[in-house]
Amino acid sequence: MLGKLSFEDFKNLAKRSDKVLVYERLAGDLITPISAIRIVEDRYDNVAFLESAELDQKVGKMSCIGIDPILTFYAFKESCYLERDGSVEKIEEDPIEACKKFIDSHLYKTNQKLDGFLGGGAGFLSYDGIRYFEKVEDSHMQNQKIPDLFYQVFRKYVSFDHKHKIVTLAVSVDVTKDLKKDFEKAKKTLEELKALLFHPSFPKKDERCLDKLSKKSLQTKNELTDKEFVSIAEKAKDYIEEGDAFQIVLSRTIEAEMHCSAFDFYRALKFVSPSPYMFFIKRPDFTILGASPEKLLSIEDGKLETIPIAGTRARKSLEEDDEIMKDLLTDEKENAEHMMLVDLSRNDLGRISEIGSVKVRAIKKVQILSHVMHLISIVEGRLKKGVHPLDALGKVFPAGTLSGAPKIRAMEIIDELEPSKRGVYGGAIFYLDPDLNMDSCIAIRMAQILGNKALIRTGAGIVHDSVPKLEADETHQKARGLLAALKLAMEGSL
């Protein structure tokens, strides 16, 4: 439904909270999420763009942009910081407790439920952030560019309701005694945002994508050779044979030299590999982008949901879908791994759910996406009273599909065998709305960008009957979509 927040509604909201979200809902037939983020990221150094790219009933319902952060919270190991308008303050407190306080004190309320993280915030918890919740060995050097925990609250927001073709513009207001002035200032900001998005002067093509550069071939460097990856996979199998774990998910990084903008890389990735969870988080010193197929945890009015994925097949043609689906459903190894991860998900949700509320709503269903099909299950529960969403995320984190089982021992072995920190890979991209509802995805099929280097990490689950060479091949296969997208972006073909 189209409309806007009135001054009367603003005054009523200001009686209950000193943080109010002023919004306007408009017809969205003249603007797309990609055109909007293209305009925004060309003008702002700090943006967060989360969208659903597979447009069916359960996924693809919204895209959301956060622009120009009011505050940014981030932490490296035990040191945490608050950034406001270019100044940085160190906070002497436990990072998770400090982040929860930051989240709870920056919820911008309005008079109806809006899409995505409007009035809330977005960020990520890196794989290495598990050490905020569990005692896991840490033998690698810290990456001083990309935090372990990162969360932003924004001045301006744009969201797209794909089903109803509505775009919502919103502005965060810290209420003062002069309500009329506050409201008029917010209205002016909305008008400026509307003019920027609906009457744009599009940015010129990124200089790094000029013909002289786009002719360069894609240069990559592997952190581990295939022989070295096979070697650590064999060591993982030894641990499994000795009874330390049932599964250990090992990964390695490909470093690629970029001759295009991060946004063009993202756009190409969406074209090559549209996925239920697309993300693009841009900062002056790093960018995180990806196309994840896998939800980690959602919280909606107290209802918890996680959707473990284990078992994947590439699609070939519509005519062959049924045959490929049958092969996936009857593959003993895939089914055994899947059921192990379903049990792990049930145990994880059990730690944060009301007694007796955890159930498996769907078991071993085939989800068909544009290029692949996955074997999925849906596990649900009811959030215990008093459990903060960030603590809930920590209890199910990281996903069993990115660590193994049992989780803690698998992560200890991963720390021993892998040559470097994972960073955001294997962690979580998440957002919270003003009512502390959450959605999050596993940070996979993604790139971490530092300068002109794209770090692409992929993994494979090692079990007792794994063939290490085939697991090494799987890491290459998982990187193909990202490398194809980067090549497409560098060629300037989009």
UniProtKB/TrEMBL annotation:
<keyword id="KW-0460">Magnesium</keyword>
<comment type="subunit">
    <text>Heterotetramer consisting of two non-identical subunits: a beta subunit (TrpG) and a large alpha subunit (TrpE).</text>
</comment>
<dbReference type="GO" id="GO:0000162">
    <property type="term" value="P:L-tryptophan biosynthetic process"/>
</dbReference>
<keyword id="KW-0479">Metal-binding</keyword>
<feature type="domain" description="Chorismate-utilising enzyme C-terminal">
    <location>
        <begin position="227"/>
        <end position="478"/>
    </location>
</feature>
<dbReference type="Pfam" id="PF04715">
    <property type="entry name" value="Anth_synt_I_N"/>
</dbReference>
<dbReference type="GO" id="GO:0004049">
    <property type="term" value="F:anthranilate synthase activity"/>
</dbReference>
<dbReference type="InterPro" id="IPR019999">
    <property type="entry name" value="Anth_synth_I-like"/>
</dbReference>
<dbReference type="Pfam" id="PF00425">
    <property type="entry name" value="Chorismate_bind"/>
</dbReference>
<feature type="domain" description="Anthranilate synthase component I N-terminal">
    <location>
        <begin position="29"/>
        <end position="169"/>
    </location>
</feature>
<dbReference type="GO" id="GO:0046872">
    <property type="term" value="F:metal ion binding"/>
</dbReference>
<dbReference type="InterPro" id="IPR006805">
    <property type="entry name" value="Anth_synth_I_N"/>
</dbReference>
<dbReference type="InterPro" id="IPR005801">
    <property type="entry name" value="ADC_synthase"/>
</dbReference>
<protein>
    <recommendedName>
        <fullName>Anthranilate synthase component 1</fullName>
    </recommendedName>
</protein>
<dbReference type="InterPro" id="IPR015890">
    <property type="entry name" value="Chorismate_C"/>
</dbReference>
<keyword id="KW-0456">Lyase</keyword>
<comment type="function">
    <text>Part of a heterotetrameric complex that catalyzes the two-step biosynthesis of anthranilate, an intermediate in the biosynthesis of L-tryptophan. In the first step, the glutamine-binding beta subunit (TrpG) of anthranilate synthase (AS) provides the glutamine amidotransferase activity which generates ammonia as a substrate that, along with chorismate, is used in the second step, catalyzed by the large alpha subunit of AS (TrpE) to produce anthranilate. In the absence of TrpG, TrpE can synthesize anthranilate directly from chorismate and high concentrations of ammonia.</text>
</comment>
